[in-house]
Amino acid sequence: MSLPSYVGKMKGKHFLNTNDFTQEEIKEILEAARDLRKKFRERTPTNYLPGRTLFMLFYNRSLRTRNSFEAGIYQLGGHAHFLSPQDVYTPTLPEDMVPYQTESIADVARVLSRYGDAIAIRIYGDAAKWHIGRGHRVIQEFAKWSSIPVLNMEDDVYHPFQALADIMAITDVAPNPRGKKFVVSYAYSGGLKPLAVPQSCILIGTQFGMDVVLAHPPGFELEDHVIQAAKENADRYGGSFEIVHDMREAFEGADFVYPKAWSPKKFFPPYNSKVDKDGAKEYQNKFQNWICTQELMDLTNKGKYMHCGPADRGQEVIDEVIDNPEYSLYFEQAENRLHVQKAVMAMVLP
Ligand code: CP
C-alpha cells in the first residue's frame, strides 16, 4: 500500500494545543482528515500505522473521545489500550504522591514509551482537583518525559481535537471562514463543565481569521492568557475578537453559534483560595435564561448551531435547535473527531 504524503509528516510531535501549530499546519491536518473521511466513507483501507499502540489514559468519562480514538487507531492498522487511573498506580504529579497507590508521571511516561507509540490523556475537573491549570500541567509533565507523542484528549485549559473537529465542520460550510462571525457563548448547565472547549474555540476561530465574539455573564471570564492569545491570533490572521455580556446581542448576524456551558472560574483556585463547587453551582443557577432557542437562532445570519457534546438538552439548548438538520452541525462535529484524530495520529506517530 502506498502511503499518502501526510503520513509521518509531523513525526514525534506532541499535540497539546492547536495554538502550538501554525495555520498552515492546521490546514494540512484538515486536508489529511478530509482524505481519511473520504476513504472511511468509501471503505478504502487505511492501514498506515500497522501494529502501532495508542495508550489512552482517561481520568474522566467520555463517549466521543474514547470511541473515536479507539476506532481511529484500529482503522489505521493499530490498536488502543484503555487505561483507567484506578486500575494502574495513578500517574500523579510529584506533590500528590501516595506510596503504592500512585506512580510518578515521569516514570509512567518513560515506561509506556518503551511499549508503544503514543500516549493520549484526558484530565480535568475533579481529577485535577478543580485547580484550573493542574490538568494541563499533568499533560505537560507527560510530554516532558515521554519519548513518544502525547495527545491531549481534553484537559482543564484546552480541547485541541475538539477544536480541529469544529474548524473542519466550519470550513466544510465556509471554505474560507475569514470574516465570518463566530459566536462562542455561555449557555446554562446544572453541571460543572471545564473551560477547555470555549478556550480552544476562540483560539481556532481567531487562527482562521474569523470575527470571534465571546459572550458570557459576569463571572464566566476565560483565562487571561487565552484571551491574550486569541487577540494576538486576530491581529496576526486578520480577524477580530470581542467580548460581550448579552446572548441576544452576540447572536445578531452570526454565521456560526456555539452556545455551551462552562464553570464560573472565580470559585476555583488559583482565582480563589478554595474550591467552592456548591458556590459555583448556586451562582450559575442565576443564568438559566442563557439557553439556545429558535428565537435566538432567528437573530443569526442563517447561522449554524454548534456544540461539542454532550449537550444538556433543555438547559444549554432546546431539542428543536440541536435536532434541526437545516442548521445544526452537532453530529458533523462528533463525526469529525474520528477523522481529525486519525489525521493527527497518522502524521505524528512513529
Ligand atoms: N466532546 C467530547 O470530548 O465528548 P466526550 O466527553 O464524549 O468525549
Plain-language structure description:
- This protein has 350 residues and is of the alpha/beta class.
- It has two domains: 18-157 and 338-348, Rossmann fold (3-Layer(aba) Sandwich); 160-334, Aspartate/ornithine carbamoyltransferase (Rossmann fold, 3-Layer(aba) Sandwich), CATH 3.40.50.
- It contains twelve helices and eleven strands.
- The strands form three sheets. It has a five-stranded parallel sheet. Strands 2-1-5-6 form a four-stranded parallel sheet, with helices on both faces.
- Strand 1, helix 2 (64-75) and strand 2 form a beta-alpha-beta unit.
- Helix 3 (105-113) packs across helix 4 (134-145), helix 5 (160-173) crosses helix 6 (196-207) and helix 6 (196-207) packs parallel to helix 7.
- The radius of gyration is 20 Å and the shape is globular.
- The relative contact order is 0.17.
- Bound molecules: phosphoric acid mono(formamide)ester.
- Residues 62-65, 154, 162, 308-310 line the site of phosphoric acid mono(formamide)ester.
List keywords for this structure.
Rossmann fold; 5-stranded parallel beta sheet; 12 helices; binds phosphoric acid mono(formamide)ester; single chain; 4-stranded parallel beta sheet; 2 domains; 350 residues; alpha/beta
Name of the CATH architecture of the largest domain: 3-Layer(aba) Sandwich
How does the major sheet shape up? 5 strands, parallel
What is the CATH topology descriptor of the largest domain? Answer: Rossmann fold
Determine the mean pLDDT.
97
What is the string of SSEs from the N terminus onward? HEHEEEHEHEHEHEHEHEHHEHH
- The protein's oligomeric status is single chain
Bound molecules: phosphoric acid mono(formamide)ester
Helix content bin: 25-40%
Radius of gyration: 20 Å
Distance between the termini: 17 Å
Query: How many domains, in number, for the residues?
Result: 2
Low-confidence stretches: none
Gross morphology: globular
Count of individual helical segments? 12
The spatial strand order of the largest sheet comes to 9-8-7-10-11
CATH superfamily of the largest domain: Aspartate/ornithine carbamoyltransferase
What class, by secondary structure content? alpha/beta
Strand content: 5-15%
